[in-house]
């Protein structure tokens, strides 16, 4: 096995496939004409290479890079355009390749007449094998291309309805098509060759391997780089090869309209089901705030019926003190192009109030203009009551704390007063003790002096 040549062929396959995918990916910006021009160049290159270059990968196993790499890539381009675009684009590329083949055949044949003349001068000794191909081979190649284009569409449609894997859809389609192309072209164009079996087997193996290789690359692209939905095909196979009649266009438009209408109805049913079973109130208004819809939960919370709520009627249920707050927040949200959020009260017919949290998000059109609002209201009365209870408990706790502090201050004052009184009493007691002690001392001195005088008298 000639691994060096195999590596070159794989590199060429990667380059060609990436080029096709890049031009296809940029078709909206650059136009698809560049891709058509590139495929036309591939057609010329594959005819030129098929008449000049063959690679021996193994003994008696010859591969044409032009036929295996370039021609197979062109078939993949037809398939990817069929998958992602409409019939008109697919028709364009098929016609472009057929016309390219026909023009190229005529030009090669005509220039071949120059080569056959003895007066022709070839100073650089360039190979002229390209012009030796007979018209029959080129004619068979053009017919094969047309049949390949038909088969790609028919087989892909058949397989895609039975297999969910995109890779296998593409791979099986292309394996069948390249197998047919190789067998049909080789047998029809080279039926009188001695090595016809080798040509067919080599072509089947090489194109089959390249088809699997391309299938991997193209599947990765479709799954991860061009994730838009595939075109739904309402056309028959012959629509690809002829312009659409007005009747066909009408039928397609009618089918699209019916499908769109059914989708809209289905979305409306889903929306209605969701809003009717929602645990929050749902409403819709126009850009000026005119209410066009409220769900049953909204009516339950507000105490109004749907007819009473439509237009500006819902303001009748709003607490008078909260109306200006709602209008101010809504106007500010409109200016800033954001979701509004307001807490306000509904004043019910029995005189009770119900707190709600209202949110309204703007609907924006393609011109970045507000065309309406979709919003919700959530009953937060229990939360408000809980908050009120918490506030009352906090106020009561603060009052109790003040009362305790008052008693504490009073006790402290009493303690200070009693302490001062005790200190004064202690001072008086100390003074009394000092006086008493001094008195006792003086009495003792007097007694001593009396005793001393008595002793003297005796």
3D architecture notes:
- With 458 residues, this protein is α+β, with helices and mostly antiparallel strands.
- The protein has 13 helices and seven strands.
- Helix 3 (33-50) packs parallel to helix 5 and helix 5 (87-116) runs antiparallel to helix 6 (135-160).
- It is elongated and about 190 Å long.
- The model is unreliable at 230-235 and 243-250 (pLDDT under 50).
Could you give a short description of this structure?
It contains 13 helices and seven strands. By secondary structure, it is of the alpha+beta class.
Structural class designation:
alpha+beta
| Helix/strand order | HHHEEHHHHHHEEHHHEEEH
**Radius of gyration, rounded?**
50 Å
Shape: elongated
* Overall strand count: 7
Largest sheet: 5 strands, antiparallel
Report strand %: 5-15%
Average pLDDT, rounded to a whole number, is 79
> Helical amount among residues, as a percent range?
55-70%
Q: How do the strands of the widest beta sheet line up side by side?
A: 4-3-7-6-5
Low-confidence stretches: 230-235, 243-250
Tally of DSSP helical segments: 13
Distance between the termini: 163 Å
